[in-house]
């Protein structure tokens, strides 16, 4: 026997031979053969062990978007922040997306599907999306983004202590209604009549309307409200309004105006109407001006809340937060087509000027 190698016990005596158990020295070649054999078998077992450990760590996130965004990662800022916080899709987290892609009626269907899959947490964007989810579950944690007036809309009890299973990040303060009207008047001073496209059943939209209505006289603007629910109502309202001169448009933030923003831009161009939107992408697409929250910042902050919930925090204990970053965007190409000269002071304040 070579020193340093183990002694292996032979089988215990059997009834056939009656021989007692003996100790058999293991030769070096036998020991090496045993190691080779073990090495050949163990890799077959390693993946099974690895998958078992990974399965224990996988968390599931549902995402419901009130937009037309599609693709494997329709909210890249959210996914990027999750990665920074240590969550990697396919390894320890799985994300399931639903985007209504222009059909508001899909909210209820997708809310039912996501809740039925029993995720650990759901991220939702927009007021109607959150309303649909809360009809489906009061237990699965929900983190919302771009939701206006969540208290007035009945989604939460208070900003500081939301209660229930829902928390998140608001979109706009009520005073934004007056701010939008002031900005439209600043970039288009000749505008004397403004048509406000809004969703009348959404409490936040009506709050914005009242704020705009309060400052309209001081700006010398006649304000008109029209409730819209689909593309046909938008087209009819804008076409009728455009028959008189010196008009302008404000598209209040709501899923119906978001999914139809390209139609609103085309109608404004056709009837030579300056139009203000709440989101940057509409100004980039051809709207005259936009002013609103930095959506990427909200999604990054929402990822931090999702991270905390996955680690055991309760939504009821996470205060609802207001936006901290805003974007002012103006499209000079559209301004030129309308015959407008944007004041230099306005351009200096803008976060983005599209040439």
Walk me through this protein's architecture.
It is a single chain. By secondary structure, the protein is an alpha/beta fold. 42% of the residues lie in helices and 20% in strands. The chain has helices at residues 28-57, 76-84, 106-116, 127-136, 176-187, 203-219, 231-241, 255-259, 261-270, 280-284, 295-310, 332-337, 344-349, and strands at 7-9, 23-25, 59-65, 93-99, 121-125, 142-147, 166-170, 193-198, 222-227, 247-251, 275-277, 289-293, 326-331, 352-354. A seven-stranded mixed β-sheet has the order 9-8-10-11-12-13-14, sandwiched between helices. It has a five-stranded parallel β-sheet with strand order 4-3-5-6-7, with helices on both faces. Helix 2 (76-84) packs across helix 11 (295-310) and helix 5 crosses helix 6 (203-219). The longest helix is centred in the N-terminal third of the chain and has 30 residues, at 28-57.
Keywords:
355 residues; alpha/beta; Rossmann fold; 7-stranded mixed sheet; 5-stranded parallel sheet; 14 strands
Summarize the structure.
With 355 residues, the protein is α/β, with parallel strands linked by helices. The protein is 42% helix and 20% strand.
The helix/strand class is alpha/beta
The largest β sheet comes out as: 7 strands, mixed
> In whole angstroms, how far apart are the ends?
87 Å
Cα radius of gyration in angstroms: 31 Å
Q: What would CATH call the class of the largest domain?
A: Alpha Beta
Q: Write down the CATH topology of the largest domain.
A: Rossmann fold
Shape: elongated
Give the overall average pLDDT: 86
Tally the structural domains: 3
The CATH architecture of the largest domain is 3-Layer(aba) Sandwich
Helix content: 40-55%
Strand proportion? 15-25%
């Amino acid at each position: 026997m070579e020193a340093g190698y183990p002694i292996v016990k032979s089988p215990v005596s059997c009834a056939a031979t009656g021989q007692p158990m003996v100790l058999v020295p293991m030769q070096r070649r036998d020991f090496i053969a045993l190691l080779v054999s073990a090495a050949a078998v163990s890799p077959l077992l390693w993946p099974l062990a690895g998958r078992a450990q990974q399965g224990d760590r996988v968390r599931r996130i549902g995402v419901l978007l009130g937009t037309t965004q599609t693709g494997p990662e329709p909210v890249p800022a959210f996914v990027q922040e999750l990665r920074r916080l240590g969550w990697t899709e396919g390894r320890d987290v799985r994300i399931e997306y639903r985007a209504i892609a222009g059909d508001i009626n899909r909210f209820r269907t997708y809310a039912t599907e996501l809740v039925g899959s029993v995720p650990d947490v759901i991220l939702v964007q927009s007021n109607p999306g959150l309303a649909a989810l809360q009809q489906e579950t009061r237990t699965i944690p929900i983190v919302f983004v771009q939701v206006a007036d969540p208290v007035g809309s009945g989604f939460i009890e208070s900003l500081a202590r939301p209660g229930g299973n829902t928390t998140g990040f608001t979109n706009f303060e009520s005073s934004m209604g007056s701010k939008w009207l002031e900005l439209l008047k600043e970039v288009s001073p000749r505008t004397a009549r403004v048509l406000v496209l809004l969703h009348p059943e959404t409490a936040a939209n009506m709050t914005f309307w009242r704020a705009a209505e309060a400052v309209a006289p001081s700006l010398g603007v006649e304000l008109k409200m029209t409730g819209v629910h689909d593309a046909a109502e938008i087209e009819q309202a804008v076409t009728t309004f455009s028959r008189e001169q010196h008009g302008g448009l404000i598209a209040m933030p709501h899923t119906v105006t978001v999914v139809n923003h390209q139609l609103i831009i085309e109608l404004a161009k056709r009837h030579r109407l300056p139009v203000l939107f709440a989101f940057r992408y509409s100004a980039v697409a051809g709207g005259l001006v936009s002013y609103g929250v930095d959506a990427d910042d909200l999604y990054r902050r929402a990822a931090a809340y999702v991270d905390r919930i996955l680690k055991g925090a309760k939504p009821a204990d996470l205060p609802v937060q207001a936006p901290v970053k805003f974007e002012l965007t103006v499209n000079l190409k559209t301004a030129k087509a309308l015959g407008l000269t944007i004041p230099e002071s306005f351009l200096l304040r803008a976060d983005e000027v599209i040439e």
